[in-house]
Specification:
Shape: globular
Number of helices: 9
Order of helices and strands: HHHHHHHHH
Distance between the termini: 79 Å
Oligomer: single chain
Strand content: under 5%
Largest sheet: none
Helix content: over 70%
């Protein structure tokens, strides 16, 4: 009888231990599941906003009654693109200086310091130019767009637009998305020019590489496809920034705290999306032998 009681007690203890282990395992599983569902829901919201934005742009080109709102787009371009030109130029110029100074010592080991132009030119045109411009624009404009739309949601201005039969996507989202795309296309070119120009300047002053030599090596290595691939990235990066910022702004809940959260989420999500998109672009270009 004592042995039977001991066995029953042991089996009960084992069952309790299994339940505790399952409960402990359920916590991270439920956390990951909840995060996964939230991520899929957010991606779906961005996809839905993308579809509605493209639909309204298509209607603006096919129906005379639907206007694009050029003054609103130009206003956003000035607010988003022109005002961020200085900071983009500053960051790009510093990156150009850093690249030249970092690449010179390894090339000195082979006695080919002049080839620094070959490496810097391709790296900036393909990757760093559009990537730097996109990341700077994310912090400068993406957060501002999310905060602005979030404040309008909290102040019930979006509901006021809908009550007057004015579509928020047409009047609020489209100008901001198009402005980020157009601005980033221009900022990407400016970033390339400033970075290469600063690299050429430091190569002349610090490395004693003549401007003509730097320029000839740059043109020898960098091809038109290098600029085209980088420029095509800037179009997608700009669309990602605008759509993510508008989605987070329109989904704000919880008052001022919600606006702050939307602003932070916009910066984080945009940077992650830009890096992932850059990886996809690089893989596709490598598969198509465009590198």
């Amino acid at each position: 009888m004592a042995d039977a009681g001991t066995e029953v007690e042991k089996s009960g203890h084992d069952a309790g231990a299994k339940r505790s282990a399952l409960a402990a395992l359920a916590v991270p599983v439920s956390f990951v599941g909840a995060r996964g569902v939230a991520l899929l829901e957010h991606i779906g919201a961005i996809g839905g906003l993308t579809f509605e934005t493209l639909r309204w742009i298509y209607r603006a080109f096919t129906r005379k009654r639907v206007r694009m709102g050029v003054p609103a787009i130009m206003s956003q371009i000035v607010r988003v693109g022109v005002r961020s030109l200085l900071i983009v130029s500053l960051v790009s110029g510093c990156v150009g200086l850093i690249l030249v100074l970092q690449m010179a010592p390894p090339l000195d080991q082979f006695g080919r310091r002049d080839l620094v132009a070959n490496i810097v030119g391709v790296a900036i045109l393909r990757e760093l130019g559009p990537l730097i411009a996109a990341i700077v624009l994310t912090g400068f404009a993406g957060a501002a767009i999310a905060a602005e739309l979030g404040t309008m949601v909290v102040g019930e201005e979006i509901e006021a637009l809908e009550a007057q039969a004015l579509n928020p996507i047409r009047f609020l989202v489209i100008p901001r998305v198009l402005a980020t795309v157009i601005s980033l296309m221009c900022l990407s070119v400016a970033s390339n020019v400033v970075a290469i120009g600063c690299g050429m300047l430091i190569a002349l002053l610090a490395l004693e590489i003549p401007v003509r030599t730097f320029w000839e090596n740059l043109l020898f290595q960098a091809k038109a496809i290098d600029f085209v691939t980088g420029f095509s990235k800037s179009i997608v990066f700009g669309a990602l920034i605008g759509l993510i910022a508008c989605t987070n702004g329109l989904r704000v809940t919880g008052g001022a705290a919600g606006v702050g959260k939307a602003t932070t989420d916009t910066v984080v999500q945009s940077v992650v999306a830009i890096v992932i998109a850059d990886l996809i672009f690089t893989a596709v270009f490598f598969a198509w032998k465009l590198n």
